[in-house]
Design a protein that fits this description.
Layout lengths: L1 H25 L11 H25 L8 E2 L2 E3 L2 E3 L2 E2 L1
Antiparallel strand pairs: 1-4, 2-3
């Protein structure tokens, strides 16, 4: 459960990292407050939220079993645990 959460946090931070790299490349002063105006941070936050929402929609759409599948839960056969499967 921690891996998907960290993935989404990483996706959220991508626009901020790209802007920081842009500031470093243009030598604008990465830690100068004037390089991070509120309007720019708001735009970066909006882009980050759009990326996270798109990744969550993609995850829901392209992962998992098909809609017509039947789940067979894990069970024990002949003393061995058989994992759950989608049929």
């Amino acid at each position: 459960m921690i891996r998907p959460a960290l993935t989404e946090i990483g996706i959220f931070l991508v626009p901020f990292a790209v802007y920081a790299l842009f500031l470093v490349a243009t030598r604008s002063g990465l830690f100068v407050q004037s390089s991070w105006p509120v309007y720019t941070i708001a735009r970066l936050g909006l882009v980050a939220l759009v990326l996270v929402i798109a990744s969550l929609v993609g995850l829901a759409h392209f992962t998992g079993a098909s809609p017509n599948s039947t789940y067979v839960p894990a069970h024990v056969e002949n003393g061995r645990l058989v994992p759950g499967v989608e049929k």
